[in-house]
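Encode chain A's predicted structure.
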Amino acid sequence: MSAHRKLRALAAATVVAALAAGCSSANSDANRSSGGASGVLTIGMPNGPQTNNSNPFLGTSAGASLGYRYMIYEPLVMTNQVRPSEKGKPWLASDWKWEANFTKVTFTIDDRAKWSDGKKLTAEDVAFTFGLIKKYPALNGNGVPYDGITAEGDKVVLTFKDSQFVNQNKVATTFVVPKHIWEKVKDPATWPNREPLGSGPYKLKTFTPQTTTLDTTSSYWKGKTQVKELRFTSYNDNSAQTTALANGKAEWSFVFMPNYKQLYVAKDPKNNKLWFPSGLGIHGLWFNTTKGPLGDPALRKAMAMVIDRKAIHVQAQATLYPEITNPTGIPLPAGESFLAPEYKGVTIKPDLAGAKKVLDEAGYTLDGSVLKDPDGKAVKLTFTDPAGWNDYITGLSIIKDNIKPLGIEAKVKTQTAEAWTSDVGNGNFDATLHWTNSGATPYDMYQNIMDGALLQPIGKNAPLGNFGRFDSPEATKALKEYANATEDSARTTALNTLQKIMVDEVPMIPTAAAPIGAEYSTKNWVGWPTEADPYGPPQPTQPNALDVVLHLKPAK
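Encoded structure for chain A:
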């Protein structure tokens, strides 16, 4: 599960009812109020009972679901998704250098780095880790095509057959695991790793399906930490998580609240804070471009022209998800520097008259209140998303109402999350709200939506994206040119082409920026990232979560 798939699942309250059955009191003793005075930080996520699995590479593990894997295992480089163009902070690697058109990178491993058992962390450990990822595809969640892997002294050299310009951060933020532990594991792809040992400042103290506690290691190679214990509780649903935040039992979380001002902020206006910045991923209405009139860009463009994104921002997303204002879908301000000249300063607003003109020129007609395509068939659509994903379901209802004046009849159908995931992957849908990938540039977003290299026939799963089967040789060519370019000017040209395709052909309609935010309390701890000090996203399940914890100090 990619970071943004996990984020989407958390944001939308996807906890399956069956998991919550019989667990209504599961959290009654969890996260007792403690806080800065005792050195405890309480973290919560609304993900239901967890299975004891701390494999850092698996997005389905408890360590990933709650975010505690980032406290135990560390990356080579610490990046900042809020400021994706900034160079990352040295972490396990004191230095790194890409060369040969991004087909080779050399990491210099910090000589101070140690595992929590006191053993030295070496370049050999790093090379071993990349070797594991190369050998076991299940551990390679980013799909990076590793080729050569060598270690000598304090240097690790990775080589690739093609440019990895677009994968720089994915390589640099890879977890490093100890060779002396993992070389004994028969199948790293399925190993639950119930006694995790990493280089981070924390180790697993206790695990239950509801609460996982970490305490500090005897010595951390980067120095002392102010937070002595981390207590992660997995609440049964959004409501329970919201209550825990409001009453102070949880101090840090990422949970969707439909009325956060009343439910959370008003309970302690001085200390109950939240900040929801965006990176370079989005949510949007994906079209199955193989289904009838949805293969016509004119219809897709007309629909995009009438959707009220402001209403979705306010009514469906409670203003928590950053609003999309640019027709390219690139979130601002994170993506400001990437905008093509023709789209700089351009904003989008509903334009019913303009949409009707687009349809008329494309041969669509109105028969009373029914829109008919150029073949005379009524345009009828079904929107699907999982039941319980209230922000998405509300968004679909708004879109349904927005397109009705065009004569388009739409209905909203809900499914189980499992059935929906299968249908989206196999192309069994008309249109659905879904998220995209994110990265250091808009490439990841556009590649996820438009790359012909990801195309699969209907009925065959497309696990990496292009769920809408958008078949554009021009987009595929531009994506390849961007990834393999040797100069910034060529990348700019390719990205400008992708933006124009997104606006003119509308493979999906951007509806919101994907948030990487959080709710947090300043009652016991201060030092959180904010809009004024955006040293990283505040979300506890993002790769920089450890950096956030290391910034925290007891409130005075």
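The chain has a mean pLDDT of 91.
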